[in-house]
Amino acid sequence: MKIALLSDCYLPRLGGIEVQVHDLAARLIERGHEVVVLTATPGMHGERGGYVDEVDGVAVHRLALRLPFELPVNPLAPRLLRERLAEGGFDVAHIHMGVVSPFAVDCARVTTGMGLPTAMTWHCMLGALEPVFRATRHVRRWASRGVAMSAVSAVAAEPLQRIVGVDSVVNVLCNGIDVDRWASPSDEVPERDTGKGVRVVTAMRLAARKRPIPLLRIMVRVRALVPAETAISLEILGDGPDRGRLERFIETHDMGGWVRLSGRVSRDEVRATYAAADIYVAPAPLESFGIAALEARTVGLPVVGRLGSGLDEFIKDGLNGYLAADDEAMAGAIARLIIDDELRGSMAAYSRSTAPEQSWAHILDAAEAEYRRAIALAGTARGSRR
Question: Which pTM does this prediction carry?
């Protein structure tokens, strides 16, 4: 099958969608498919305007515009996008959608206008914007034109299903990870350095929607709940526009001795940090899936996240982590895990002995099924318009 993956954001930008689309492309090629990426993200050296480069063996068309901060936005892209898709002879297009994805919206208009079979995966929680998407009606219109709709978790799929109505189906197409790479065999549990106390870790973009400042407030509360003689630490992996705010908060609240901002790190460094940690925290309630949390769970860390988020796909409350209703409940769950070594150990043992379902083998099977569904729906839609 020849597949076009369409996304506003792609490498070298770093984030959940960027990494996931990159990995999906590579895995589809391993299965024998031909894959091309089209994106509004400039290349490593600012390549744009339709420039084609290669990233880890995948051809990437850079349909980017010169904008401040290299924003992945290009209202002039549809003409060139249409040309590239028509020339490419693609069997299916797979659009990756976020809450604010102007390039992906243009892609949907182009592919449906061309009659190109289209799958669309939503990587976001609509939240308070659900009425806006319902009022604009373009999502329902795409579905009626045969777009195969999916979302990365059941909780993200629910509002989409309400929007498209009973005549269309929104499937769940979870994100995937290399389980073998992240898993810690149960008989290879790393020795803990008890001198460093209980180590809490998270990986996130330092931006408001990921809630790094509320995380620091949660940890201030945790410090108050845990006996003073119990040493704890927090390491935050990742970078972003709110780093300065975090640095000021840490200084103001005298947290410098036990909170570390590690910045952007490689996947190998992330894996090593998780292996040496004790608890993973995911504070964002609008987390549509949580790739970093899934990777931490696969390493063997108990995960504390928010109830009603995409973490429900792989965290079983009370068994391999906690899903809390609010920040105070999160603080209580983290404190409970810090104090109770046996509880942490039992949760870690469960995660190490029970592989998550989101391995690439399962996800690729589901993706291929979505592509076949898109092709069938496009044929039905063409027939109904005759």
Answer: 0.91
Nearest Cα to Cα of residue 172 among 162, 160, 190, 163: 160
Q: Which residues pair with 63 in a beta bridge?
A: none
Q: How far apart are CA 97 and CA 142, in angstroms?
A: 13
Predicted confidence band of residue 378 (pLDDT cuts 50, 70, 90)? very high
Query: What's the CA gap between 290 and 215, in Å, rounded?
Result: 16
Strands 303-306 and 198-203: unpaired
DSSP H helix total and E strand total for the chain: 14, 14
d(CA 290, CA 299): 14
C-alpha 160/C-alpha 157 separation (Å) is: 5
Using pLDDT thresholds of 50, 70 and 90, give the confidence band for residue 382. Answer: low
Distance CA 263, CA 255 (A): 17
- For strands 148-151 and 170-172, give the pairing: parallel
Alpha-carbon distance 177 to 157, whole Å?
A: 20
The set of residues, in sequence order, having a beta carbon less than 8 Å from that of 104 and lying 6+ positions away, is 6, 7, 8, 95, 96, 97, 98
Read off the tokens for 240: 């972003």
Single-letter code of the amino acid located at 219: M
What are residue 51's DSSP bridge partners? Answer: 62
Domain boundary assignment for the chain: 2-176+360-385, 179-353
Dig out the tokens for 62 from the structure. Answer: 């850079």
Mean pLDDT of the chain, nearest integer: 94
Does domain 2-176+360-385 match CATH 2.60.120.280? no
> What CATH superfamily is the domain 179-353?
Glycogen Phosphorylase B; (3.40.50.2000)
Burial class (CB in 10 A: 0-12, 13-18, 19+), 367: buried
Burial 118-157 (b: 16+ CB within 10 A, else e): bbbbbbbbbeeeeeebbeeeebbebbbbbbbbbbbbebbb
**Considering only CA atoms, which of 342, 293, 346 is closest in space to residue 319?**
346
**pLDDT band with cut points at 50, 70 and 90 for residue 193:** low
pLDDT bucket at 285, cuts 50 / 70 / 90: very high
Tell me if residue 37 falls in helix, strand or coil: strand
Determine the 3-state secondary structure of 124 from DSSP. coil
